[in-house]
Amino acid sequence: MEHRDVVSWNSMIGGLTKVGELREARKLFDEMPEKSIITWNTVLNGYVKAGEMEEAFQLFESMPQRNIVSWSTLVMGYSKAGDMDMARVLFDEMPVKTLVPWTIIISGYVEKGFTKEAIELYDRMERNGFKLDDGTVISILAACAESGSLAMGLKVHDSIERLKFRCSVAVCNTLVNMYAKCGSLDKALSVFNGMSKRDVVSWNVMLQGFAMHGHGREALCVFERMKKEGFKPDRVTFIGVLCACSHAGFIDEGIQCFYAMEKDYGIVPEIEHYGCMIDLLGRGERLKEAFMLVNTMPFEPNAVIWGTLLGACRLHGATELAEKVLDHFKLDRTDPGNYSMLANIFAAAGDWDGVATVRLQMKSVGVQKPSGASSVEIDNEVHEFTVFDRSHPNFDSIYGMVHRLAQDLKRVSHPKDATLPVEVGELVI
């Protein structure tokens, strides 16, 4: 180009940041003779999306002028990075706040389990006269669904009803999803039944809510209602149906639905549907059928498919089939879950040499299985615990209670044989 204007430069820089070429974008940014606020915000957003917050902050500090987008982008970056202290400092320093930064900071607190702080800011936002819109409601409710923060979800729902907020289908869908993910299926169903309009997503969200909590019969009832009311199931619908059948043990119903996908609805099963079917057959101890299905799939099985089959082998102690699986499946050396599962299969079969071999392999490649975590919401605050975790401020009293429970359990006799005391090992949070 003989002549380039600001739009030309911004278009090129924006394109490079979108595909993750931050170095090239920064090089052009530094060469650009005159930069607009859009130029600065584009590169800032690129750093934030890449998680490079140190570079983002340095760029933010050097900006000749900042607008609401600049401030909001940086607050969002620190929120996504989990640094809520820094996000809050920037939020408090913002010279002008619109609904967007309020939504970002509240959603950030909710996602990280800081429900008290989120509710406090939400109340202040309402006192300052900001009115809810679809974007704010959907963002906060989605964060509640992700973190399991029912208290915050109830707070938003209360505002919706109190302010007579006109809910779109998308907002209602997010509300149903939030209640379902937080385990409040009665409220999810109440919102769903009260919707004047529904789309396919509405049905899918309600169906999956029942499925994830093991209510297979209710999920299938929603599926039947969906068809009767004239809605055509899509690929997501069948993932929910197959998961529901798998968790509830409805083997025959699941098989029937799987083969009806293409025959009755023209939906070609994808790898996610095959994964659900293999899980379904594996849980039902029909391992040979599951293995045959894997071998007849129209595409190459991935690590999730093989891992699902390995998990079924572990569940039913099928060591021989597990070895056949391993003959076909090259173990993913980056996934500690595969090693752990394989070691458990050998342990269940009493093959301690096999267990030792897997443990040595884990050590040799430097793989360590991350600890699982449990969380509980008490007084609008989410507390998370992991094995041997001592970061909680009340860990002394928590471990004291765990020790007391362990001692009590040691004195309890098995109901089927009162003469044999239950042996309880060391319990940890």
TrEMBL record:
Gene3D superfamilies: Tetratricopeptide repeat domain. The keyword DNA-binding does not apply. GO terms for biological process: RNA modification; system development. The keyword Repeat applies. It holds the Pfam family PPR. InterPro entries: E_motif, PPR_At4g14850-like_plant, PPR_rpt, TPR-like_helical_dom_sf. PPR repeats lie at residues 5-35, 36-70, 98-132, 168-198, 199-233. Keywords: Repeat. GO terms for molecular function: RNA binding. This is DYW domain-containing protein. It comes from Gossypium raimondii. The lineage of its organism: Eukaryota, Viridiplantae, Streptophyta, Embryophyta, Tracheophyta.
